[in-house]
Design brief:
This protein has about 240 residues and is an alpha+beta fold. Helix content is about 25%, strand content about 20%.
Length: about 240
C-alpha cells in the first residue's frame, strides 16, 4: 500500500457502518412517551384505553353490526373525581347475550356506591333506573323511573328510544335539574373485543340486592323471634278439653 493511502474497507467515509449512528433528535421524547404509556397500564390496567378502542371503530351515533359489549363509562360525578378512578371501577360493562340490561341502585349497588358516596344523593337513583336492550342493529334505551333522566342533555321520554355510540345519559337530583352523574355509552363490536380484549371487570362482582332480609345475618333475622319468645308468660296451666269446664 503506498504511503498515505488508506487500505480498502478502512476508510470511515466509505464504510458508514463503522461510524456510530447519530442520536435521534426526538429520543428523549420517545422515551418519556414510553414511560408514560407503561405508567398508564400500571395505574389503569389493560382496559385503560377502552374508550379509544371503541371510538376507533365507530363514529358518534353509529351502532356496530355485531355487538359484544355495551359499556357505560362514568364521565362525571358530583361526589368523586372519576378522572382518577381506574376504568374498571367507573365503567359498567354489559355483555352481549345477557340482555335486557337493567341499571339501577338495586342492580349494581357497589358500582353506584363508588360513584356516589353520599347516601342521600345516591337514594335519588331508583332501584331500577333504566333498561338497555340490543335489537340488532340498534341499542334501545327505556326509562324505568318516574324521575327525570337526561338523554343527550334532554329529558328522556317514557317509551323506548334508540341510542348510538357516544350517547350521553345523565341522572339529576330531586329538583329535576341539577345533574350529579353522567355516563357515556360506548359500543364495542366483536372484532374490537377480539383484538384488544374485553373491558376488565372489578375483582369483586357486583351482585343485585335481592332483599334486605336475605342480606341480613341469620342471627339478626332470628332476633325478633327470640325476643318474642322471652316475652311469653310461663304458666303451668293444663290445656285441653279435659282441663276446661
Amino acid at each position: 500500500i503506498p504511503e498515505g493511502a488508506v487500505a480498502p474497507g478502512t476508510d470511515p467515509r466509505s464504510n458508514p457502518q463503522q461510524s456510530p449512528p447519530p442520536a435521534h433528535p426526538n429520543q428523549p421524547g420517545r422515551v418519556r412517551a414510553f414511560v408514560d404509556a407503561m405508567k398508564e397500564l400500571w395505574d389503569h390496567g389493560l382496559g385503560g384505553s377502552t374508550e379509544g378502542q371503541a371510538a376507533a371503530s365507530l363514529n358518534a351515533g353509529q351502532s356496530p353490526a355485531d355487538i359484544a359489549e355495551v359499556v357505560l363509562e362514568c364521565v362525571y360525578s358530583s361526589g368523586t373525581d372519576v378522572n382518577s378512578m381506574p376504568l374498571k371501577h367507573k365503567c359498567l360493562v354489559l355483555r352481549a347475550g345477557e340482555q335486557p340490561w337493567t341499571i339501577g341502585r338495586q342492580q349494581q349497588p357497589m358500582f353506584f356506591a363508588r360513584l356516589v358516596p353520599d347516601e342521600t344523593t345516591r337514594s335519588v337513583i331508583s332501584r331500577n333506573q333504566m333498561q338497555l336492550t340490543w335489537e340488532e342493529p340498534t341499542l334501545k334505551f327505556k326509562k324505568l323511573t318516574p324521575n327525570v333522566v337526561l338523554l343527550n342533555n334532554q329529558p328522556a321520554p317514557a317509551q323506548d328510544v334508540p341510542v348510538g355510540h357516544g350517547a350521553q345519559i345523565g341522572f339529576v337530583g330531586r329538583d329535576n335539574v341539577t345533574q350529579f352523574l353522567a355516563f357515556s355509552v360506548l359500543l364495542r363490536d366483536a372484532g374490537t373485543v377480539s383484538k384488544a380484549g374485553p373491558t376488565p371487570l372489578p375483582t369483586k362482582p357486583d351482585m343485585p340486592v335481592v332483599g334486605q332480609s336475605q342480606s341480613m345475618p341469620q342471627q339478626q333475622q332470628q332476633l325478633p323471634i327470640q325476643q318474642h319468645q322471652r316475652q311469653l308468660p310461663v304458666t303451668n296451666a293444663a290445656l285441653g278439653r279435659s282441663a276446661m269446664p
